[in-house]
Structures are given as C-alpha cells and as structure tokens.
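Deliverable D4.2, example record:
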Amino acid sequence: MYDIKEIQSIIPHRYPFLLVDRIESLDPGKKVLGIKNVTINEEFFQGHFPGEPIMPGVLIIESMAQIGGFLMLHSIEDPQKVLPFFASIDKARFRSPVVPGDTLKIEAEMIKMKGKVAKIRAKGFVKDNMVSEAELMFIMQDK
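Output generated by the structure prediction step:
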C-alpha cells in the first residue's frame, strides 16, 4: 500500500488537482488498484450540481489517469525524469453517478508499453458496481 506522500513522490499532481488518496496494490508493469475518497468538500461540488452533487466524468477520467500514470511511472527506471501526458482517451463509458461519500476504486492494467508510450485500461467501481471505464494512452516526455 502507498500513502499520499509516496504517491506525490511519483506523480506530479498536487492539491486541488490530486485525485488519488491511496494505492492499495501495485504489480509494476501490470496492474494497480487506487482509491479516491469522494467528499462533499471537493471544490467542484459547489457548481456540479448545486443540490445534486455529482463528480464530473472528466474528473473520474482524470483520477483514472493519475492512477494509471502511477502504474506507468512505476514501470520505468527513473520516473522523476519524465512527465506523462495524455495522448488519447478511448472507449470511455460512465454507468452510474459518483457522489459525495463514495469510495471510487480504480483498477488500471497495462495493455502495452513501448518506449515512451503506454496504453492502460482503467475501470472505476463504487462498492462492487462498475461506474466507469476507459482506455488511456500516455506519452512520456523528458523534463
């Protein structure tokens, strides 16, 4: 398990845009399970939507990307020398809303990694229900 300090030592995101709270398990180069605790204190709930707070789909995708990026960066020799950037988002689907109080569990698995390009399949769950899924492609650029 990796706590927030260890996560911040790998991925570059910081508050208010860090959307990972914990990494529960990691098999470098293969798969990762990460957690985003969704609370009413999130800034985006002020406007999305007043009286009916729902986590925006783009932020669910971003949380998937950060957890997938953690997997990708843990799969290379020197993660501090590169920055991962989105190259594409494919097959994105949202099945159920994510609301305050939910624990969003994200499973990400490496589809393939070649050089500085990686493709990751991610699925988001609340309890045992799949709420989202997507295939994410990244390109790593030297810092």
